[in-house]
Amino acid sequence: MAEASPVPEELETIIQGMAAIPVQNQPMDDKEPLQYFTPAPPIPPAPIQINMAETQKAPEEDKETRAAKGSLKGSPPTKFDGDRKMAKKFLNDFKTYKFLNRKNETMRVPANHVALALTFIKGEHVQDWAHEIMKNMEDRLESTLNPMLETNEYHWDYFEDAFRDAFTDTSEREDADNKLQNLHMKDGNLDQYVAKFNQLSHLAD
User: Fold this and answer.
1) SS3 content of the chain, % helix, strand, coil (to 5)
2) DSSP character string of 49-113
3) Rounded CA gap, 66 and 112, in Å?
4) Region for 109 from its dihedrals, namely left if φ exceeds 0, alpha if ψ lies in -120 to 50, beta otherwise
5) What number is the average pLDDT over the span 113-133?
6) Cα(first)–Cα(last) distance of the chain, in Å?
7) Mean pLDDT computed over 136-143
8) What's residue 80's pLDDT?
9) How many CB atoms are located within 10 Å of the residue 111 CB?
10) Distant-in-sequence, close-in-space partners of 168: CB < 8 Å, separation ≥ 6
11) Distance between CA atoms of 187 and 44, rounded to whole angstroms?
């Protein structure tokens, strides 16, 4: 029987060396096992969120801001020169003008719309009165003891009361009072009677 041929020393060394080569996840001696990682996919950026309510609100705010800073709308009242018969019309026309422009910065501040009203009161018979009203308001605003805010409604109330006291057409009031005393219902028309009564009552006040 033939004897097995001995393995060459060089070949045995090669085989032992190959056995020592680690494969995947096989420890090499006492060292940590090799780890194989698959690269994670890139994280997409977070979506940009847009507040549509604020986007839609901005143009409206800009529009209101422009209105507040813009010119006044409508027809201003006719200048008042002291004619008592035109006093009530002037005051009513200015109130309408003030209401139409109520969002304007000038009309939102009582001291400002008093000053504006005074610019429509011109003439030798009214200039001293207008100057006195303006001076009184300045004294209230600039008082060292107790200054009044320009936003205080007292400025307009004072102007309106002073204007009525100075320029009310007393003859119109007396005439309306006389007509009110002699008012009678005609042909049983109650609606016409009530409307005329309310009109004369307003003029007589």
Assistant:
1) 55, 0, 40
2) P--HHHHHHHHHHHHHHHHHHSPPPSPPPPPB-S-GGGHHHHHHHHHHHHHHTTTSHHHHSHHHH
3) 18
4) beta
5) 95
6) 150
7) 95
8) 95
9) 21
10) 84, 87, 88
11) 87
